[in-house]
Amino acid sequence: MKRFLLSLGVIALVFSANAKDYAISTPNSTLIISAKEGEAPMFRYYGSRAEVSDVRGAGRMINGQEAYPAFGTRCDRPYASLVKQHDGDNAVKLVLEKVTESKEGTVSTLSFLLRDVAHPTLAVKLNYSAYSDCDIVKMNAEYINEGKKPIVLQKYLSAVLPIQSDNCVLLHLDGTSKNEFNEHIEPLSNGVKIISTQSGSQVSKHVNASFMLGLDGRLDETNCPVVAGTLVWMGNFHFEFHNTLQNRARTLFMGGINPAASDYTLAAKQSLATPEMVFAYSTEGKGGVTRTLHRWARKYQLLDGTKQREVLLNSWEGVHFDTTEENLNGMITDFAKLGGEMFVVDDGWFGPKYPRNNGVSSLGDWGIAKSKLPNGIRPIIDLTHKNGMKFGIWIEPEMVNVKSELYEKHPDWVLRHPDFEPSYGRGGGQMLLDLTNPKVQDHVFSVVDNILTENPDVYYIKWDNNMEMFNASSLYLPKALQSNLQVDFTLALEKILKRIRAKYPDLIIQLCASGGTRMNYGFMPYFQEMWTSDQTDAYHRIHIQWGALNFFPSNMLAAHVGSAYSKYTQRLVPIKFRFDVASMCRLGMEMVPAKLNPSEREYAKRAIAEYKVIRPIVQQGDLYRLISPYDGDKSFTSLMYTSEAKDKAVVFVYRHLVWREMAEPIIRLQGLKADAKYRIREVAPEVEGKPVRINGKVVSGKMLMEEGIVIPELSKSFKSNVPLSEIRPTNDWKSVILELTEVK
Q: For 297, which DSSP code?
């Protein structure tokens, strides 16, 4: 056997008598595919970085697993591809025609061009890419119809990944509106586990297109091999986890676009590239793959991922639809006094004919409602700037209300079946515009373009989407292409976003959709952040943010301080706890500042000032999860961020359930330098001038990581026989933020 190293540096070929082994590597992982002309490429290995000879010598080469199995040859096995030819034949045998390699920046790519034996006009190109500076591998497939007649793609997944483990543990996220990103961990039993969405325009309301697999029967934070995956796609997705003893790769993952109700007609000479499936591998547990995904996202996928995000006040929870000039002016001046950096006018500012006073009317009519803002939006923008802040505004450009001028003029622009009574969304009159229609695409673009043309100093847009695809029929597409709708709708949205970004590359856009129902990396080349959830109850938010942080970086997650009383949970939570929870991500506020009492107002001012100090570490640091809200007696949660140089860190600790004589937790920190000394400082203590007792102490990194810290103030006992008049309804809530700075 003779080994050659290609010019790419991370792609190696090993030649044997039968096939070539193609190895593509990241700094700490390796993917191996074997291929021979005229045969199906075979998946051989994915795991820790290794030479092919070591993988073979250790007996870790996977046998018998096609890299991209198609229906038609081994129907007893899972398949990623099902294609119906123009003559009705749906048996496909894909074999290798050629292999190409390329490199762009830090990304090296191997591409395998496959061709169908029975219908040579069908080609499928498999792409495998690896980064030289992070442990990320990407996979996707491209279907090419070189024939003269259309074909129908009935299953066209992006990626196949066999896992060499007979004891996998799966982490996935689920939830609903105001209860997103619940973390679930379960063993993969024999059989098939499917996670998918079919909601069309809101693609992660109940489940998220991301997962982790622990390969040793466990899924801990620090010390086990883990594979994480996330799909870069704004539409419906489909994941399959096959747990079988058919071959040495016991667990087989397949994922991509959900084929349900989405047979895709591929016209002659047309191609369709499936979305990229991104994988991270680490032997450092959940924490390892999380940090890998965060670094990759900030550097490569999230728009402006390395830039700092501002502290903002959004008007929605404060005034809802009551966006009068008086209300907005008061919020602007009060927030500026607290140290705010941006003010955002939410829903309720538009509707020249039908003023937006509720969720029943006005969507589509993006002119000023003069009955609410008689002087227009310009005085609001000017006052915001006068107070030293930037200005943002809310839109929902993909939607229309039946009660609107737009719908009166263009009833054919909505998604609906011509023979059915349509279903309606929010308020009983909301409908989704048909983005496959080029005229609608122009309209959606014009919503943003008109706002920015008339007000070029608008800095930020909050882009909402409060409706799923209730009516999955297009009045624009011909009947023969109706099953293309859900894919073409997503591709059209991407086309619109690319057009907006080409003209307005510096515009900050938050993606909001009833909270986190669009949390997906497919959106992130076009948006700088996402609204994590409409749930602003701080205790509930701990779990929501904990789950989202598994896959998405903190500067992508908008977290706002709401009112003390949550209408969704009917809980009262003190202001320090609310600020401390929101400070673990991109801090903002969602209330009327004037409703704060004097002591709360003073604390808010201190908390915002302190957040600006720790912001670089929180928004750009490496995340380490220390105590899960799902573990033990569920009394505490703790996590921390460290700087790249490990000279600074920020630690968050939350107590959210009180027990009599409860023991204070030992919190062992991570990600520090063992031989360094760190000074501890409490950030924005509850009572100014009375920080926790470890404030000001200097402790070695070794001690902090191996023996940990204890904060008795979080678990002190309560006095007996307290008069009823002195009992607080919020004794469960206690929190501490600590800043660590290396002492040189």
A: I
Structure-derived torsion over alpha carbons of residues 509, 514, 517, 518, reported in degrees to the nearest 10: -20
Question: CA-based angle 333:337:343, to the nearest 5?
Answer: 55
Query: Is 18 buried (19+), middle (13-18) or exposed (0-12) by CB count in 10 A?
Result: exposed
Q: Taking a C-beta distance cutoff of 8 angstroms, is the pair 92, 122 a contact?
A: yes
Average pLDDT, the chain: 94
Phi/psi at 620 (nearest 5 deg)? -125, 0
- The 8-class DSSP code of residue 285 comes to H
Handedness of CA 573, 576, 578, 584 (dihedral sign): negative
Per-domain residue ranges of the chain: 2-301, 312-622, 623-742
Q: Which amino acid is at 723?
A: P
**Residue 589 dihedral angles phi and psi, to the nearest 5°:** -130, 155
Spell out the SS3 assignment of 664-694.
CCCECCCCCCCCCEEEEEECCCCCCCCCCCC
Rg (CA), the chain: 27
Q: Per-residue pLDDT for 303 more than 80?
A: yes
**pLDDT at position 659:** 82
**For the chain, what is the largest distance between any 2 Cα atoms, rounded to a whole number of angstroms?**
86
The residues pairing with 243 across neighbouring beta strands, listed in sequence order, are 191, 251
Task: Provide the 3-class DSSP secondary structure of residue 212.
Answer: strand
Instruction: List all residues 6 or more positions away from 527 whose beta carbon is below 8 Å from its beta carbon.
Output: 303, 463, 509, 510, 511
Contact call for residues 207 and 172 (beta carbons, < 8 A): yes
**E-strand stretches of 6-87:** 11-15, 20-25, 29-35, 42-48, 81-84
The residue with tokens 């999955």 is 472
Axis-axis angle for helices 485-503, 438-454 (nearest 10): 30
To the nearest 10°, report the CA torsion of 414, 419, 420, 422.
Answer: 20
pLDDT per residue over 135-164, tens digit each?
999 999 999 999 999 999 999 999 999 998
The CATH code of the domain at 623-742 is: 2.60.40.1180
Cα–Cα–Cα angle for 126, 128, 132, rounded to 5 degrees: 165
- Phi and psi torsions of 312, nearest 5°: -125, 160
Closest CA to 203 of 465, 429, 558: 465
Closest CA to 515 of 540, 489, 534: 534
Is the distance from CB of 128 to CB of 110 less than 8 angstroms?
Answer: yes
Contacts of 270 (CB under 8 A, 6+ apart): 145
Name the E strands within 164-293.
169-176, 179-187, 191-196, 210-214, 226-231, 237-243, 251-257, 264-266, 271-273, 277-282
What topology does CATH give the domain 2-301?
Beta-galactosidase; Chain A, domain 5 (2.70.98)
Q: How many helices (H) and strands (E) does the chain have?
A: 12, 38
Q: What residues pair up with 187 in beta bridges, in sequence order?
A: 169
Joined together, the tokens standing for residue 641 give 């961020």
Task: Please report which confidence band the pLDDT of residue 73 belongs to, taking 50, 70 and 90 as the band edges.
Answer: confident
Q: 312-622 architecture in CATH?
A: Alpha-Beta Barrel (3.20)
